[in-house]
Every structure is written in C-alpha cells, then in structure tokens.
Specification:
Elements: E1 2-3, E2 6-7, H1 30-47, H2 51-57, H3 64-70, H4 89-102, H5 104-124, H6 127-138, E3 144-147, E4 163-167, E5 170-181, E6 188-194, E7 200-206, E8 212-213, E9 228-239, H7 251-285, E10 287-288, E11 291-292, H8 297-325, H9 331-355, H10 367-379, H11 384-396
The structure holds 3-thiaglutaryl-CoA and flavin-adenine dinucleotide (FAD).
Residues 108, 111-112, 146, 148-149, 155, 157-158, 181, 249-251, 254-255, 257-258, 260, 331, 380-382, 386, 390, 401 line the site of 3-thiaglutaryl-CoA (TGC).
Length: 402
C-alpha cells in the first residue's frame, strides 16, 4: 500500500496458493507433489523476499545458484549416477513451473544449466566429459551457458558464422554469440560452431581459454534478475577432447532446445498462476463504489477467462509430460505448448495488471515484473511466430522457412 507518499519496497509476504481447477493434482504422483512443495517452499523463502529488489537493480541473485542445486533444479530428469535428479519429465516440468512462479529469470538460471548445458553433455558427450562436468554442474560448483544465437543469426541459427578450423590436437574457434543467459558468470559454455565442411558441432569452451571473453549486455527491461551477455571467440584454441563427439548438424542444438522449450511450456504456467493469484486476492480486497471490485462482472470476466486459460495450459503441459515420459513428445508438440502457454501467461499478466489498477505497475505486486519477463520468454527459445510456423509446417507439410 502507499504510505507517507512512498511506495514501500516489496519484500513481499508471499501468500501464493496453487490453483488446480480441474483436480490435475490427482494425476500426479506423490514424488511430483513432494518435489513441487519443496520448490514452492524454497521460492517463498529465498526468491519472493528479494526478487523485486534484484529485478529493480538489474542484478542477478548469484547466491541462488547453489540453492537451486540443493533443491535439485539442475537436470531433474537426468540420471542420478551423474549427480542429477533421476526423476521423470513431469517432475522436471513441475519444478520449472514453481521456479517461474517466482520469476522467469530464476527459471532461466536453472533451465539453461540443466537443459542447455547438462543435457547436451549427457546426450552428446563422451563418458569422460559426462564424468568431468555433470556432477559439478548438478551441484552448482560449476555454472554453464549455451551459445547458439549470433548477432546476425537468431531465428535462423543454421546460417551461423562462428567456426572452427582444424589445428592438430585442437580446433581454432572464431566468432561471436549474442544474448547468452549466464555467460558473464559461466565457467563453461556449450558453443555451436561450423567446421570446415560447414557442419555444426558442439564444443565445451572453458573460461580462461585464451581469446575467450564474455561481455555483459546491459539495458534490459525484461528478465532483469537474469544475467545476459555475449560470447566472443578470437582464435580460441579448444582441445579436440572438448568437442561433443556424438552429434553433428543443427539437430544437436535443436534437440537441446526441445528439452528447454518443454520446461518453458510448464514454467510459463507458473508466471500466469502468480499473476492470477495476485489479481484474485486483490479483487476481493480492493473496494470501489462501495464493494469489492471482484463483484463487478467485468472483473469476473477477466478472472474467469484467466483460470480457464490456465487450466487448458495445465492440461496441455500434463499431457505433453506423459508423452515425454515415454519418449513420444514430438518437437512440434513441444512448440505448440511453448507458444500457447507463454502467450497465455503474458495475456494473463496484462489482464492482471488492469485488475490491480495503478498498483499493478508497482513493485508491491509481482504482475508487472512477470509481464516484462514474459516478453523475453515469448521471444527466446524460438519466437512466438517461429513456433506458429513449426505447427504450420507440421500440419500442412509445407516448410515456410525455405
Ligand atoms: P531444419 O532443416 O528444420 O532442421 C535441421 C535438423 O534439426 C532437426 N530438428 C530438430 N531436432 C530436435 N528438436 C527440434 N526441435 C528440431 N527441429 C528440427 C531436423 O529434423 C533436422 O534434422 P536432420 O537430421 O534432417 O539434419 O532446420 P532449419 O534451419 O530449417 O530451422 C528450422 C527452425 C527455424 C524451426 C529452427 O532453426 C528454429 O527452431 N529456430 C529458432 C531458434 C531458437 O529457438 N533459438 C534459441 C536459442 S537458445 C535460447 O534462446 C536460450 S534462452 C535460455 C533461457 O534463458 O532460458
Ligand atoms: P530475429 O530472428 O531477428 O527475429 C526478429 C523478428 O522476425 C521476430 O518477430 C521473428 O519472429 C521474426 N521472424 C524471423 N524469421 C521469420 C520467419 N521466417 N517468418 C516470420 N517471422 C520471422 N540465445 C542463446 O543461444 N542462448 C541463450 O542463453 C539465450 N538467452 C537469451 C536471453 C534473453 C534475455 C534474450 C532476449 C534472448 C536470448 N537468446 C539466447 C536469444 C534468443 O533465442 C533469440 O533472441 C531468439 O531466437 C530470436 O532471435 P533474434 O532476437 O535474433 O530475432
């Protein structure tokens, strides 16, 4: 509330309660519920009290990297023998949902580490690479980032110009990557570059390699609590033992994106739920014309549509999770869920902002922060329109990209 002419800092008392209109919890196992509750409690105690201030200062709460490891947020569905969670894909999704309920940037910290760094090392790496990197990444001792996007090649990564040239027992890496989550803090980067035959290969580039730098990108109005930077390679000598041996071609990075997009399809529901939860509570408390604004039909329309869309997104995510658990979730199905659920959350954030009136633009409520974050989530991991075209290609058989 506004007091003495100032809007107080929002070290908010997080009163969030989940919303489960269709009893989807009944479809979950005891392990899923346990994982969800543990992450929810962690978000309430570690994220909610600080997130508005970190977002305002555009600062990454680096101390949370360790905590994320402790709650098993890095690679929850990768095998336990490498220090990972060994859970199923639904557990992974639920964890992402609870994290993004706190903040999309916090979910990004976890999903880059787990899905875009650990997953390619697990899926395409040698046994030696797995043993060297995965336990340290799972425990948060090491932080990673993923470099696909370039300054001139975002939606079209196959046109990348970052390249490697053979130099005996190493490759010489040149080029630059742009918009890389976690890069200024990362110990390693999984980088995708073209070899001399023009095939895309994955390499593990380590901080400290000569010619490798990671300048930070400033001035973001979205995902402000997540750190973003570039990756610059000037004749970096990368040992051949750091190349991911078991993949070549664009399907390497795109497979990692499928894993991460799946997590975002679940994660975005969390941001939508937090906005809905806040708007519902506000509609009961805020009075105008002598009654709670929740009594007005127009407010009810907004809230009813919000919970309808959330419920549809929850069912989509759950069904996608059951398909993913048996290895049957197709990339196009994942695209549909990522696109629908992120857009759903962004629309809900906008409606929730209206329900909060002027207070909706302040840091006393989470809504504006989620809304700004979701603008990035709508764009990264494939833009809203790219995912539409993936669905279009899947249903018509015609490729609009070529
Ligand atoms: P195309 O010819 O269609 O495909 C090339 C090869 O890849 C295979 N493939 C996939 N495999 C696994 N998962 C997927 N989702 C796949 N999509 C395609 C495909 O079968 C083919 O395999 P093969 O064996 O025949 O070679 O490729 P294209 O060049 O026409 O591009 C298609 C397009 C536009 C859909 C793709 O380039 C695309 O998805 N673009 C969007 C780029 C993107 O999403 N960038 C994200 C960067 S990372 C990021 O944003 C991280 S944010 C992190 C955070 O903070 O959370
Ligand atoms: P462009 O590709 O230039 O697209 C601009 C517009 O053109 C979009 O609206 C797009 O939909 C449209 N467009 C493009 N092609 C077509 C087409 N064929 N038909 C119709 N419309 C089209 N990347 C990484 O590799 N690693 C990361 O960790 C990472 N983190 C990120 C963090 C943040 C905060 C942000 C903002 C981005 C991040 N990205 C990362 C990059 C992200 O994946 C790209 O921004 C995204 O893929 C879009 O690329 P672009 O920004 O170059 O936009």
């Amino acid at each position: 509330m506004i007091g003495n002419g100032t809007i107080q800092k929002r070290a908010r008392q997080d009163q969030y309660q989940g919303h489960d209109y269709y009893n989807i919890d009944e479809l979950l196992s005891e392990d899923h519920i346990l994982a969800r509750d543990a992450v929810r409690d962690w978000v309430k105690s570690e994220v909610s009290p600080i997130i508005e201030e970190y977002a305002e200062r555009a600062e990454c709460p680096k101390h949370l990297f360790k905590g994320l490891a402790e709650i098993g947020a890095y690679g929850p569905s990768l095998p336990a023998e490498y220090g990972c969670g060994g859970m199923d894909e639904i557990a992974y999704g639920i964890i992402m949902q609870e994290l993004e309920r706190g903040d999309s940037g916090i979910r990004s910290m976890a999903s880059v580490q787990g899905s875009l760094v650990m997953y390619p090392i697990y899926r395409f790496g040698s046994e030696e690479q797995r043993r060297k990197y995965l336990p340290k990444l799972a425990s948060g001792e090491m932080i990673g980032c993923f470099g696909l996007t370039e300054p001139d090649h975002g939606s079209d990564p196959s046109s990348m110009i970052t390249n490697i040239k053979d130099d005996g027992d190493a490759y010489i890496l040149n080029g630059a990557k742009m918009w890389i989550t976690n890069s200024p803090l990362a110990d390693i980067a999984v980088v995708w570059a073209k070899n001399e035959e023009g095939r895309i290969q994955g390499l593990i580039v380590e901080r400290g390699m000569k010619g490798f730098s990671t300048p930070e990108i400033h001035g973001k109005w979205s995902l402000r609590a997540s750190i973003t930077g570039e990756l610059v390679f000037e004749d970096v000598r990368v040992p051949k033992s750091n190349v991911l041996p078991n993949v070549s071609g664009l399907k390497g990075p795109l497979s990692c994106l499928s894993k991460a997009r799946y997590g975002i399809a679940w994660g975005a529901i969390g941001a939508g739920l937090d906005c809905y939860d806040s708007a519902l509570r506000y509609s009961r408390e805020r009075k105008q014309f002598g009654k709670p604004i929740g009594q007005f039909q127009l407010t009810q329309k907004k809230l009813a549509e919000m919970i309808t869309e959330i419920t549809k997104a929850q069912l989509l995510a759950w069904r996608l999770g059951t398909l993913a658990n048996v290895g049957k979730a197709t990339p196009a199905q994942i695209s549909m869920a990522k696109r629908n659920n992120v857009n759903m959350a962004l629309e809900i954030a906008r409606e929730a902002r209206q329900i909060h009136g002027g207070m909706g633009i302040t840091n006393e409520y989470p809504v504006m922060r989620h809304m700004m974050n979701l603008e990035t989530v709508l764009t990264y991991e494939g833009t809203h329109d790219i995912h539409l075209l993936i669905t279009g290609m899947d249903v018509t058989g015609f490729n609009a990209f070529k």
